[in-house]
Amino acid sequence: MVADWWEDRPVSAGTLKREVSPRNKHLMPRWGDVALIDITRLEVKGWAAKMRRDGLAPASVQRYVHIFSASLSAAVDAEILVANPAARLKLPGGETDVHRYLTADETGALLNATTDPLIPLLLGTGLRWGEGAGLYSRRINVERQVIRVAEVWDSTMQKMLPYAKGRKIRNVGVPEWALEGMLPLMEAAGKGRIFGSLDLSNWRRDVWNPALEKAGLFDVRIHDLRHTYASVLLSGGRSLAEVGAILGHESPATTQRYAHLMHTNTDAVMALLPDPRGVFVGFRGAVSPHAEQHGLSGPKS
After folding, report:
1. 40, exposed or middle or buried, with CB in 10 Å at 0-12, 13-18, 19+?
2. Model confidence, pTM
3. Could you report the per-residue pLDDT of 178-197, keeping only the tens digit for each?
4. Domains, the chain, ranges and CATH?
């Protein structure tokens, strides 16, 4: 049953590939031979409860139920089912995304612990990893210090997707200190991709984890750089709507997760981003001699 609707879901090929393992391990054993008409909401709840009893984390249970629900949505769209019995289930013990914000000292330590230009790029722009890893040199206006986010690199499929998440092409400013490390790579790439064909797992192992260890940070995820960037903008007085547009959020509800930062002590989060060379400069920092050679004079308004 699940396999019949798997390919019809409106998700990327990379997402399909990543979900094959949980489908085969958790969905097919329970639902593979069950007719669509025989699936009830009560049975779906019972399946979720059994997974929790078997020791699966609440977040994992939610993910597997979500995948199952997505597979049933295709049957609803095809008018084979009247309603999706797995849709919008309220499961107990669900976990929410924990937002980790780096302090100024932590950010400085991380940036000084790496020479990989992708880390300062993500921190200084709030790009998702795939957006940064798939960045074409031609998408960067060095003079204006603006990046046009129009593609995303799918590490699982090892291919470019011709749109960013949400299919919303957007412009994002990039601080001089985040741009400077990419200049040599841009020159070498011509109009091609700056970072080549990166593999996320290998990059995490070879670049990200060593940088965290050297910086003395052991509880930071790659996506936390994006959270930190959002906290900087909100602490600086930017509105939720503006931050959502800069981050490329599809829904205002996504940006609303950061609303509490507008009412907290800004000392608890970094108010400025440090220059990776160790100079605390913020978004309008001093310009290094190397940057001057490339005509950089600080972010443009």
Report:
1. exposed
2. 0.62
3. 999 999 999 999 988 999 99
4. 2-77 (no CATH), 104-293 (1.10.443.10)
